[in-house]
Recover the amino acids of this structure.
């Protein structure tokens, strides 16, 4: 049975005159990758900080693994990766993790295990300053998951990464999720969300404007058309089985046929246009 590991009701937060979040409601189920999507300034980082007890809300209710975000009971059960996850460049891969193992008071044997998980075991003696960008990113990941958290908060984990490093990070996230880790992921990359997330919520100016399974959202906002390409013409017809049947009866040479669904990005742009 699905259980909600995050439950948020009417969450609001302002900074002086800036309203960062206003009346947000959402929940995240155990075992899913939940994408929190929105452009820069939408309120994604603020949400992660509120959910992880780094900021206090102005109003609303947050339950994380059945506890309040400030509860000491959840600290060991969550992992947080944000853009300021600095590493100690002059220390080795292993020593960077040893430091965190000590902070979390966990067995040193976890270090080798987690290095294996992010495919860095062979590099354990290397200095961080000698690592490639992709390896550093994997080390940050290792640090985030060294205590085996069941819930991960990842704030734009692939922003500013080159395509192949971004892919490495996405593969690690998928691997962890396949083993049962629930992931709360913020991103402004709609293609990434479409590829990775079981469910998404669109955030714009501090409001959730739509949420659901990426595929369902694309179908909901589809113009329901079929593109037909013959040797003579390239045209669209309404997505209707009867019409399609009639159409096919008098086509000699069909080159291509497919239904047209919007991308997640197009859905988002349509919704934000309606809002403004
Ligand atoms: N500490 C802060 N002081 C003042 N304004 C802030 C602070 N943190 C965030 N904001 C404002 O809140 C809004 C949401 O910011 P943020 O959550 O960082 O967005 P995102 O992560 O989606 O880019 C923005 O308008 C931002 O300028
Ligand atoms: Mg942010």
């Amino acid at each position: 049975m699905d259980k909600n590991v995050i439950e948020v009701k009417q969450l609001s937060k302002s900074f002086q005159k800036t309203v960062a979040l206003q009346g947000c409601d959402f929940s995240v189920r155990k075992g899913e990758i939940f994408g929190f999507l929105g452009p820069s300034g939408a309120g994604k980082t603020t949400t992660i900080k509120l959910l992880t007890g780094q900021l206090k809300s102005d109003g609303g209710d947050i339950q994380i693994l059945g506890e309040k975000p400030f509860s000491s009971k959840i600290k060991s059960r969550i992992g947080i990766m944000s853009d300021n996850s600095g590493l100690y460049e002059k220390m080795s891969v292993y020593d960077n993790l040893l430091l965190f193992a000590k902070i979390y008071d966990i067995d040193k044997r976890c270090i080798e295990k987690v290095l294996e998980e992010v495919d860095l075991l062979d590099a354990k003696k290397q200095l961080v300053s000698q690592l490639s960008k992709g390896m550093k990113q994997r080390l940050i990941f290792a640090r985030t998951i060294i205590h085996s958290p069941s819930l991960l908060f990842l704030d734009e984990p692939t922003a500013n990464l080159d395509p192949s490093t971004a892919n490495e990070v996405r593969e690690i996230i998928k691997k962890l999720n396949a083993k049962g880790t629930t992931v709360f992921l913020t991103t402004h990359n709609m293609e990434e969300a479409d590829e990775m997330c079981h469910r998404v919520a669109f955030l714009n100016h501090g409001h959730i404007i739509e949420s659901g399974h990426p595929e369902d959202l694309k179908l909901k906002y589809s113009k329901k058309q079929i593109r037909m390409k013959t040797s003579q013409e390239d045209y669209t017809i309404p997505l209707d089985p009867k019409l399609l049947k009639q159409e096919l009866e008098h086509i000699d040479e069909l080159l291509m046929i497919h239904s047209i669904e919007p991308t997640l990005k197009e859905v988002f742009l349509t919704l934000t246009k309606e809002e403004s």
User: Anything to note?
Assistant: The first strand starts at residue 4 and ends at 15. Residues 219-275 form one domain. The chain has two domains: 4-213, 219-275.
